[in-house]
């Protein structure tokens, strides 16, 4: 038997929960306001509390903070309506164990949740999260923010609500979406992903909703869209901000009613798929610029998960390298110097870029050594700590972490500014600029040749018109 506290100003809800949990042998204390909570919290030690997030005299989050301060061992379930789910998510960040939506759909869910939380002594689901992450080859690491993201994702997976994932390019938004899918009750149904930015505007609507035969030129047969293919599973809309305004209108309708019509069709069809959307840009700014509908954002942004960029969790880089090498069964070790370079680098491409750097280093070191030093890293990464120490020098151009195209653009602007804008030109700076261009161009063409030859240095040297010895010089000695 457990002492359970209910804090809710709706008498029907309190009465319902009281009868339900009394029948299970638990002792109930009911409060309808913040004042009653203040009085009762000093009288008993509670094992579990059900808190409403909206009370007439106090915010539910304030009550949660007080409860956790006075009785930190007490488990908490937050009760919320659809419009206040984000508040419930915030409550989990402040120490709540879970949340349930009102009105309650299934009595069994409340009973099971109550017993699950009471039987779990530390109120943690870390073991379940780690087990699922291992099954999916999903790296979490030790960063507190990343752990919190996956903790929230695991809880939200059980709720039938849309989720918006925000994060820079390469942070792993689709990986998180797959984690949510496999942690949900839909795990035995399909996970279907579509990149809204990779499909032309003319085809996107057809890809999402399907089309009838003859709907447009080239539509020689009927085709199912991604909503139909997902069935009762999960539809992942990556780069949702790239969808046209016309498509956004139809997405809004399906989110509100579940209804859609195929391109060229007349009959209304229904989708049972759960929507997870992702974007690397702020949709609020897109709304202000007239590129995204505010009503669609409201529907998608029921709950938002933010994936931190790699530069803000650089402490996990050595752990990720170990994780990746083990997953790929690669017997290599990175030296401390190499790891230091990787930790200092800003990683504009995030995890995706780090994986590419690891692959490149392994390809260069293969058949030579199992110890990867800084020399096997790209020029933009190696010796980055020394280079960063020069960023206060205004004469040193800060454009190392860019694509080659952007590099050329920035380099040209810098050299033309020296020639036509500045009153005097320092030839030493010109020579330095030329050296930077030479190094960047050399690195880029070598990387292209190695990619074309799948890392075969001998063939790459032949393609570049240089000797193998010269290629090794550029890779291992020239900086």
UniProtKB/TrEMBL annotation:
The chain residues annotated with the modification 4-aspartylphosphate are 52
**InterPro entries for the chain:** AAA+_ATPase, AAA_lid_NorR, CheY-like_superfamily, HTH_Fis, P-loop_NTPase, Sig_transdc_resp-reg_receiver, Sigma_54_int, Sigma_54_int_dom_ATP-bd_1
Q: Which PROSITE patterns match?
A: RESPONSE_REGULATORY (PS50110), SIGMA54_INTERACT_1 (PS00675), SIGMA54_INTERACT_3 (PS00688), SIGMA54_INTERACT_4 (PS50045)
The record, for Pfam families, names: AAA_lid_14 (PF25601), HTH_8 (PF02954), Response_reg (PF00072), Sigma54_activat (PF00158)
* Entry's Gene Ontology BP terms: phosphorelay signal transduction system; regulation of DNA-templated transcription
The Sigma-54 factor interaction domain covers which part of the protein? 139-363
List keywords of the entry alphabetically.
Answer: ATP-binding, Nucleotide-binding, Phosphoprotein, Transcription, Transcription regulation
Q: What are the residue boundaries of the Response regulatory domain, all occurrences included?
A: 3-117
Under Gene Ontology molecular function, one entry of this record is: ATP binding
Name the UniProt record assigns to this protein: Sigma-54-dependent Fis family transcriptional regulator
């Amino acid at each position: 038997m457990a002492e359970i506290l209910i804090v809710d100003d709706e008498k029907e809800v309190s009465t319902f929960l009281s009868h339900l949990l009394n029948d299970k042998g638990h002792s109930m204390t009911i409060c309808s306001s913040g004042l009653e909570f203040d009085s009762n919290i000093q009288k008993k030690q509670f094992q579990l509390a059900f808190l409403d997030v909206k009370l007439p005299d106090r915010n539910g989050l304030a009550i949660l903070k007080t409860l956790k301060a006075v009785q930190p061992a007490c488990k908490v379930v937050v009760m919320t309506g659809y419009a206040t789910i984000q508040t419930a998510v915030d409550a989990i960040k402040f120490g709540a164990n879970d949340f349930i939506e009102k009105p309650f759909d299934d009595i069994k869910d409340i009973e099971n949740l109550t017993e699950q939380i009471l039987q779990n002594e530390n109120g943690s689901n870390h073991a379940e999260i780690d087990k699922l992450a291992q099954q999916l080859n999903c790296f979490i690491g030790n960063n507190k923010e990343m752990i919190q993201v996956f903790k929230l994702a695991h809880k939200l997976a059980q709720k039938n609500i849309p989720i918006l994932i925000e994060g820079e390019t390469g942070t792993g938004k689709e990986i998180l979406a797959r984690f949510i899918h496999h942690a949900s009750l839909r795990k035995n149904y399909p996970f279907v992903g579509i990149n809204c930015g990779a499909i032309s505007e003319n085809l996107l609507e057809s890809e999402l909703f399907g089309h009838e035969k003859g709907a447009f030129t080239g539509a020689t047969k009927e085709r199912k869209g991604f909503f139909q293919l997902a069935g009762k599973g999960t539809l992942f809309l990556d780069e949702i901000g790239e969808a046209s305004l016309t498509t956004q209108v139809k997405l809004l309708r399906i989110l509100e009613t579940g209804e859609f019509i195929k391109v060229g069709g007349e009959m209304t069809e229904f989708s049972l798929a759960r929507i997870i959307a992702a974007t690397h840009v702020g949709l609020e700014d897109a709304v202000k610029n007239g590129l995204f509908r505010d009503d669609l954002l409201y529907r998608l942004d029921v709950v938002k998960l933010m994936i931190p960029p790699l530069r803000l969790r650089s402490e996990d880089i050595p752990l990720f390298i170990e994780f990746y090498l083990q997953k790929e069964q690669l017997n290599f070790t990175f030296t401390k110097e190499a790891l230091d370079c990787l930790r200092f680098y800003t990683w504009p491409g995030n995890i995706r870029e780090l994986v590419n750097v690891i692959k490149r280093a392994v390809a260069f070191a293969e058949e030579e050594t199992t110890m990867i030093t800084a020399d096997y890293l790209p020029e933009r990464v190696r010796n980055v700590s020394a280079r960063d120490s020069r960023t206060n020098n205004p004469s040193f151009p800060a454009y190392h972490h860019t694509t080659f195209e952007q590099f050329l653009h920035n380099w040209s602007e810098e050299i033309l500014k020296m020639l036509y804008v500045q009153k005097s030109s320092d030839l030493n700076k010109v020579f330095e600029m030329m050296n930077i261009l030479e190094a960047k161009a050399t690195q880029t063409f070598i990387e292209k040749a190695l990619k074309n030859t799948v890392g075969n240095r001998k063939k790459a040297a032949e393609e570049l018109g240089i000797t193998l010895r010269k290629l090794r010089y550029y890779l291992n000695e020239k900086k």
